[in-house]
């Protein structure tokens, strides 16, 4: 497969996953502002801090209001990670490889982009039901991935797509945990005793659609169990461990190698090392090290995997 084509499939999937996760970020803060109006009505700045866009935000906006942050994260094309920007990039990547995508996938993504663009460009744009608006965005993204799963052959293109999707998902799940940590936590993880703590950490689970699956495994809500579930759970699709495991599987399918036979390139080495580190790190070790510090380190290593994938498969100058 041409590196250009592989790169487009990889990033198309990453950008749509990013659209869904940014919609989730905003949804969870909206719901918390309803549940804890005296505490969370003003706590919107951690969203841009956790996504790594704080410096850009501060250069464009004067205050950390709910309206400004929603505009920045959803509609602002000056923000390369906004919903609008990500959807635009995903559509452009798809346009360049239309011939290898299922017809239904291209038509859905193109329509999704055009409808969002029409709404975003309205001079007096107003979201009448903000909760429903972001739910609809999430559903459009889920429909896109459902179409890919149902209609695309399991070839190199498919595995480059799933690789991108799960690398992006692992990153964003780590940032959901970071948002909770910044928003409402002391420097140490503690047992939940305050009802406000319970609402915040329940919202973290709901933000990644994990609440019901978590309750099937744990009788009560507490920070350690939630952190354990979202980092180390091997069977929940939005957990970090599961996402890295799926990304590793996709990467090895592309090369035709097997993880049990050792790595064949630097990208495989990086992802297998990270997967084993997650497997062999106990939650007590994470808490001792510091949740925020652990998540920062994970994000750096996850980004390194992306860099190695680029060097191995996408950088034409190295070929």
Automatic annotation (TrEMBL):
- Output this protein's name: Alpha-E domain-containing protein
Q: Which residues form the DUF403 domain?
A: 1-314
- Please report the organism this UniProt entry assigns to the protein: Lacihabitans lacunae
Top-level taxonomic group: Bacteria
């Amino acid at each position: 497969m041409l590196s250009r084509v592989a790169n487009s499939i990889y990033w198309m999937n990453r950008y749509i996953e990013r659209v869904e996760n940014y919609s989730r970020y905003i949804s969870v803060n909206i719901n918390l502002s309803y549940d804890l109006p005296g505490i969370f009505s003003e706590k919107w700045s951690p969203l841009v801090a956790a996504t790594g866009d704080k410096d850009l935000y501060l250069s464009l906006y004067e205050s950390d209001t709910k309206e400004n942050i929603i505009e920045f994260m959803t509609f602002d094309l000056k923000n390369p990670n906004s919903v609008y920007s990500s959807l635009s990039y995903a559509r452009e990547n798809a346009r360049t490889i239309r011939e290898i995508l299922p017809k239904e996938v291209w038509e859905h993504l193109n329509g999704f982009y055009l409808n969002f663009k029409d709404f975003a460009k309205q001079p007096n744009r107003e979201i009448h039901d903000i909760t429903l608006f972001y739910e609809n965005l999430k559903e459009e993204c889920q429909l896109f991935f459902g179409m890919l799963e149902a209609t695309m052959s399991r070839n190199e293109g498919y595995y480059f797509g799933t690789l991108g999707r799960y690398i992006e998902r692992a990153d964003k799940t780590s940032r959901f945990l970071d948002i909770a940590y910044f928003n409402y936590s002391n420097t140490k993880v503690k047992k939940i005793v305050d009802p406000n703590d319970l609402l915040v950490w329940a919202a973290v689970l709901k933000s990644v659609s994990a609440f019901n699956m978590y309750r099937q495994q744990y009788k009560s809500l507490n920070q350690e169990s939630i952190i354990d579930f979202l980092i180390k759970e091997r069977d929940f699709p939005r957990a970090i461990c599961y996402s890295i495991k799926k990304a590793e599987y996709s990467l090895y399918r592309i090369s035709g190698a097997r993880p049990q036979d050792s790595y064949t390139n630097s990208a495989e080495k990086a992802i297998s090392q990270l997967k084993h580190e997650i497997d062999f790190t106990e939650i007590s070790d994470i808490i001792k090290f510091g949740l925020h510090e652990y998540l920062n380190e994970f994000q750096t290593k996850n980004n390194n995997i992306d860099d190695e994938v680029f060097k191995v498969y996408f950088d034409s100058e190295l070929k």
